[in-house]
Amino acid sequence: MMQFRPSRFEVLPLVVKNLVIINVLFFLAKITVGNFNPSAMQDLLALHNVQSPLFKPWQIITHMFMHADWMHILFNMIGLWMFGAPLENEWGPRRFLTFYFLCGIGAALLHLFFLWYGSKDFIAQLDYLRTHLTFENLYAFTTGESGLRGLVTEEVADKVNTAGKFPDNPTYLTSAFSAVQERAYQAISRPTVGASGAVFGILAGFAYVFPDARIYLYFLFPVKAKWLGIAYFSIELIMALQDRGDGIARWAHIGGAIVGFLLVLTWKRNRPRYY
């Protein structure tokens, strides 16, 4: 845990308070709906690859109010309050709210770019298979290194094998392709949720506006905000470049931090009296 001990920012500001409330309400709604249809809200509101059938433009914003579990929302809301409250008190609610959403949107856009880049060859092969549908191409796609290899379910494998046993029957081949296509879209449709990108932007803004503020790591070790911000950004960048496949949207964190830093830098140049 981290503790920020300022003397002037102890009251929960309006925008931070309402953002926390909205996030909690979304999380409770997700849990409630999840008892009936676990994927309903996630498919609709979480952020998906632009090449996924589940992608909708509004997800660039709505994903910020979705969270995976209690620990996920807890730490994001602590970060929102810890670093966001001082900024809102410094800037006022309107500017802070603008800052929050721009950071979150910037985080989403950078994350979407890397999702698209990572799956574009995969989707290109699927499109090629659709227009050149033969059993040989279908088999190559399901077993090739850059295809569905390692992701094929037993049901999909059975349909592909059946198509191979009856090569003169196009019905089996079409059925197998439909199953392969559905599995391919499932593979690229992993949802992204959370306010982490916006929170990383807030951390970057806080580190810039209050560079010498002391953050108490684990309530014991004081670290200046500027060093904490640089350390977090560096760690996220290294982890993103290593691409460990841990399911954490590190490029979203990086995107939020970059947008946050550029915004405060621009605002300082244009209206220096805020600093």
Q: Unreliable runs, pLDDT <50, ≥5 residues? A: 1-10
The DSSP helix count reads 11
Main β-sheet, in a few words?
Answer: 3 strands, antiparallel
Q: What helical percentage do the residues reach?
A: 55-70%
User: Could you tell me the mean pLDDT?
Assistant: 89
Strand order of the largest sheet: 1-2-3
Radius of gyration: 23 Å
Domains (count) = 2
> What is the CATH fold-level name of the largest domain?
Rhomboid-like fold
Distance between the termini: 29 Å
Beta strand %: under 5%
**CATH H-level superfamily title of the largest domain:** Rhomboid-like
The CATH architecture of the largest domain can be named as: Up-down Bundle
N-to-C series of helices and strands: EHHHHHHHHHEEHH
At the first level of CATH, the class of the largest domain is Mainly Alpha
Structural class: mainly alpha
Q: What overall form do the CA principal axes indicate?
A: elongated
The tally of strands reads 3
